[in-house]
Amino acid sequence: QIQLVESGGGSVQSGESLRLSCAASGLISSMYCMGWFRQAPGKEREHVATIDIDGHTTYADSVKGRFTVAQDSDRHTLYLQMRTLKPDDTAMYYCASDTPRCTVVLKRGFFAYTGQGTQVTVSS
To answer: Coil, helix or strand for 107?
Structure first.
């Protein structure tokens, strides 16, 4: 069983920063891929960033250069540092994990385990 609990969301102005955290528990050692995705009202779920157990990262084009995904050495905490936030970044952000490599998860289009989400609202 994997439990993922997000925190750190909030309301900010355009251009400001936020750091999201995800506390992971359970059989994390079996999770090769961890990451973040987001979903805004009326929009499809969107991959934001992923990180493999070996540290390889991927980012959506819309966040490249602004967001950074990282994990603690024991992989029990996942972070998403978000800089230069824009109103288009407004969404519910979810932490997620799965056993295959992230390339497989992204191709498949969904994670096996997700948290409850944390809301990020960016106003102009």
So the answer is: helix
**What percentage of the chain reaches a pLDDT higher than 90?**
93
Confidence (pLDDT) at 29 = 87
- H or E stretch covering 117: none
Q: What is the pLDDT of residues 52-65, one digit of tens each?
A: 999 999 999 999 99
- SS3 of residue 105 by DSSP: helix
Is residue 9 within 8 Å of 23, Cβ to Cβ?
Answer: no
Q: Give the DSSP per-residue string, 46-99.
A: EEEEEEETT--EEE-TTTTTTEEEEE-TTSSEEEEEE-S--GGG-EEEEEEEES
73: pLDDT strictly greater than 90: no
Q: What distance in Å separates the CA atoms of residue 6 and residue 84, rounded to the nearest whole number?
A: 21
Residue with tokens 């090769």: 32
